[in-house]
Amino acid sequence: MPPKKTKTMDKKLILVVDDEMDTRLVLEKRLIAEGYSVITASNGNEAIGLAKSKRPDLIILDVLMPGMDGGEVARKLKEVPETKDIPIIFLTGMFPARKESEDFRMVAEHLLFDKPYETLELINVIENVLLEKQISLK
User: Model pTM?
Assistant: First the structure.
């Protein structure tokens, strides 16, 4: 398990995208408590704009959203040079994570997480994804 973040360590920026305000707020509070910087979006267009302008280190993306679903958002992000390397983790209440589709696996680096999700498991995956990204950039 990576070391706990301290004030001297570089804070990683995470974009949380979910159309449900309660889900965004709960996850934002938990991630801030873990030492991350967090920005949020309530829809796909907002998420794409924030991803391009803020370049987060990781995106946590809801699958089922009105307008543009998470799969479409992820595909659009992977087509753009400035956002194509940002890791994406999907959250969904629409189907069990164990039945993930190939469509989502093509754009997500890690498992889909069911809502409700186990917070500690999600935090561990976030830490591992960010560590893998850091190692791959060296």
Answer: 0.82
* pLDDT for the residue numbered 7: 43
CB 17 within 8 A of CB 73: yes
Question: Which range marks the domain in which residue 70 is found?
Answer: 13-137
CA 2 – CA 50 distance, rounded (Å):
27
Measure the CA–CA gap between 7 and 22, rounded to whole angstroms: 28
Find the distance separating the first CA and the last CA of the chain, reported in whole Å.
Answer: 20
Ranges of the chain whose pLDDT falls below 70: 1-9, 94-114, 138
Give the total number of structural domains in the chain.
1
For residue 23, give the CATH number of its domain. 3.40.50.2300
pLDDT at 4: 52
